[in-house]
Amino acid sequence: MKIVVFGSGGQARVVAEIVLRENKHQLVGFVDPLAKHPEEKIFNLPILGGLEIIPKLIKQKVNGFVVGIGNNQTRAKRFNQLEKLGLKPVCAIHPTADIGRDVVIGKGTVVNMGAIIATQCVIGENSIINSGAIVEHEDKIGDHVHIAPGAALAGRVKVKDYAFLGLRSVIKDYVTIGKNAIAGAGAVVI
To answer: What does the CA dihedral 169, 172, 177, 181 come to, rounded to 10 degrees?
Structure first.
């Protein structure tokens, strides 16, 4: 499938690297209406334009996307816009991620290098499980969630939609993190 990454900043570059390494889809470039350097190439791929380019891309048989934006609300907005325009969200899962049995991963979710998702977890749509994060057994992660690098969630944790768990945060077992909640870098939630 031919796909694009939405965004051209740091998270978009991480997503593109995963897509290229995963080698399941053909990445044709980036879509970013706010590109700081629209003539720039990333991994030798162009920034194609903003949302106005989507109908042309669909005619060229581009039919999938991954959003490469870290902010949950902005990522959700772009995810919904691109679906309404007719593109299909695809997951980007780094080959070094370790994913257990009976794990469900929602459409458009990104799982970065070295992430661990243990058995029977459910990960929602358009979420980010960042580098080195640990999501333990039977955790339930909502839609548009960002679990930052090195965050560690014990078993049976629930993380509601749009929550952000910061760098190296630690979440005790059976805890529920509410919708739109933020656990800052290094936070310990008991």
So the answer is: -30
**Six-digit token string for 44:** 């030798």
Summarised one tens digit per residue, pLDDT across range 148-186 is 999 999 999 999 999 999 999 999 999 999 999 999 999
Beta strand 134-135 with 152-153 is: parallel
- How many other C-beta atoms can be found within 10 angstroms of the C-beta atom of residue 96? 14
Q: What DSSP designation does 36 have?
A: S
- CA 32 to CA 164: how far, in whole Å? 23
Q: Are 148 and 169 in contact (CB under 8 A)?
A: yes
Reading the block at residue 20, the tokens are 């290229």
Output the pTM of the full model: 0.96
Distance CA 110, CA 126 (A): 7
